[in-house]
Amino acid sequence: MAATLAVLGGVVAAEEWRVIGNALERPDIDAFYEQPPDAAAGEPGSLVKLDALLGAPFASRAWRLMYRTTDVHGDPAVATGVLVVPLTPAPAGGRTVVSWGHPTTGAARECAPSYGFDPFLGIEGLRFLLDRGYAVVATDYVGMGTDGVDSYLVGATGGNAVLDAARAARAVPEARATDRVVLWGHSQGGQAALFAAERASRYAPELAILAVAAAAPAADLRGLMSAHLDDISGVTIGAYAFTAYAQVYAEAPLDGILTSAALETVPEMNELCLLSHLSELHRIGAPLVGDFTTRDPTTSEPWATLFAENSAGSEAFDAPLFLAQGLADELVVPADTERFARHEASLGMAVTYHEIPFADHGTVAYLALPTMLGWLDRVAAEQVETAP
Q1: In angstroms, rounded to a whole number, what is the distance separating the alpha carbons of residues 140 and 156?
Q2: Is the omega angle on the peptide bond into residue 302 within 30 degrees of 0, that is, cis?
Q3: Rounded Cα–Cα distance for residues 258 and 293 (Å)
Q4: Residue 377 CA: distances (Å) to CA of 17, 97, 182
């Protein structure tokens, strides 16, 4: 009992220090996100800035990263994120990297997970992954945290940011990160992880993608948008997505799809973060339900084509795929994820599809962890057994 209490006391003390460390970092945090003049000049995945974090999770080291990446058009871009590694010694060959894609948080700087008071809070499964010896890197994507064109639900840009985050992890010598990569994401991050998997062999051929896991991924954007054309979720997602697409694609101006009322309101919505300002977002967006778009974007050009181009599933990849879906999810429709799983399997891929009856969109990634981690353990073991 005394030993147990001593361990618990140590954990509590470590968490108290984490809070203190996070607080000490706040006064100078904005300076980190300011880009130097040469920020985008360099190879994708190379570091622009690195800052050791005081408030690292228990028994780990962590850094805030600024790194180079590439957008959907092939132009240089800059992204930020965090990297966490366990304090336990790395294996002789180094650590496998888990590159995490976060779900929708918003578009403004303060919505970037790495900018938050606790930049590790939303990395679903972080503690279990660290305990297994993984290095975990979590991107903010392009256009959040630091300057850049918004990239919300722009698949190629998100996928590149996820892959380049893994490259950036390798650029931190103390992390002992290798070219072995697991991709894991939720919702928007599921889309990013899937695009990363599809693009990896061309975009980052030096990385060995060992496994890909996604919880309620935004894989089928036409299906997602179609399911929410006339509700508050559609207005909220659309406020972020249409704004991003208008910035990224010259052929998709906002006044070509949004009503005059939406054009007035959407800029204000884009200044609010989903998790911390959900009630305010819904209050502002509620009057736009039924008066948001001038036409159905899922059947009108150029939006229908853009949604198709930014939907996953256009090509197969070699790594095994795990998909989790909550049957109580009212945002990503379960039938869409099941259909996507069948589509991926039809391409000859090894797909594990896991349904959770009582999980909704917010809880599905957490509730999927026991099954997902068991699957990942088996995949890792099989790869060790078959290694030459």
Answers
A1: 15
A2: yes
A3: 4
A4: 31, 14, 12
pTM greater than 0.90 (yes/no): yes
* Burial of 52: CB neighbours in 10 Å, binned 0-12, 13-18, 19+: exposed
Block means of pLDDT (10 residues each) for the chain, 388 residues, are: 49 57 68 95 97 94 98 98 97 96 94 94 96 98 94 98 98 97 98 98 98 98 94 96 97 96 97 93 96 96 97 97 98 97 98 97 98 97 69
- Kindly compute the dihedral angle of the four CA atoms of residues 277, 78, 67, 365, in this order, to the nearest 10 degrees: 40
Strand order in the sheet with 351-356: 47-52, 60-70, 76-86, 135-142, 95-101, 177-186, 208-215, 321-326, 351-356
User: Alpha helices, DSSP H only, in the chain?
Assistant: 2-25, 29-32, 126-131, 155-170, 188-203, 221-227, 232-248, 260-269, 278-285, 303-309, 334-346, 364-386
